[in-house]
Amino acid sequence: MQDFFDIQTWHPLTVHFPIAFLSLSGLLSIYLVFKYHKAIAQFNLGLLFLGVITALVSLYTGDMEDGKVSRTLCDPTVLKDHENFAYYTVYAFSACLVLWSIKLFTSFIKFKKLIISLILILNLAGLAGLVYVGHLGATLVYEQAAGVEVPDKDCSGF
Amino acid sequence: MKSFIIKSLSVLSLVLFISCGQSTDVVESGTYTGTVIEVEADKSEIYVKTEDGKTLELYFIEETKLTQNGQEVPFSNLKKDQSVEVEVEKVGKRLDPLSVKIQ
Fold this sequence. Notes:
The structure holds two protein chains of two kinds.
Chain A: H1 10-14, H2 16-34, H3 38-69, H4 76-105, H5 112-144
Chain B: H1 2-20, E1 30-40, E2 45-50, E3 55-59, E4 65-68, E5 71-72, E6 83-91, E7 94-102
Parallel strand pairs in B: 4-7
Antiparallel strand pairs in B: 1-2, 1-6, 2-3, 4-5, 6-7
């Protein structure tokens, strides 16, 4: 059985937290742009905060694994795109976190429309990035067996 | 509202388009000269910008020979902005560096 403390298991372990938090937060943010409720917005801010923090952890665990996995891939450019788009996604949601914080805790009434517009744009970008990063990650595993130990055909190791 | 959605999607498309331009390049097997633009010592990895503007991401493998003035040298001798000549083998779309000469 795979050792829990083997760093190869950490990226697939950590990556699902930001997927859950950020996708839910992204959808809630879009809802809030059109129908604002302060209580939901505060809950959403918590989700977004957890999403960004766990995404940063995932970037770190992904970077640790990158050095090992890249040498075994037949097309490391997919991994590079996976990494780049993960960064862009985190940038987009981090900016959303800042903008939601401004909206909830300050009174920049003058820029209200601009802040809401930016939140919507960055959310759409973040959600699109999240889906694409996930797709690239799945492609790496299913097409190139990234970080996967393939068992013998006769399952002799089990 | 319609124009706002169109503007939002345009900005989104622009962001994604710009994002797509950040990737590294794949070249045929051969020898290339260029400049080291990044060294990641903990991964034994370098990025080389070739004379024709391509960016090669090279992960050192066991067979990689790193030399300077004809002598084999450790990875720590590689620094950013050094000129290098690299011999790469294309395996699939992966570039395995066979030799790296610091010039």
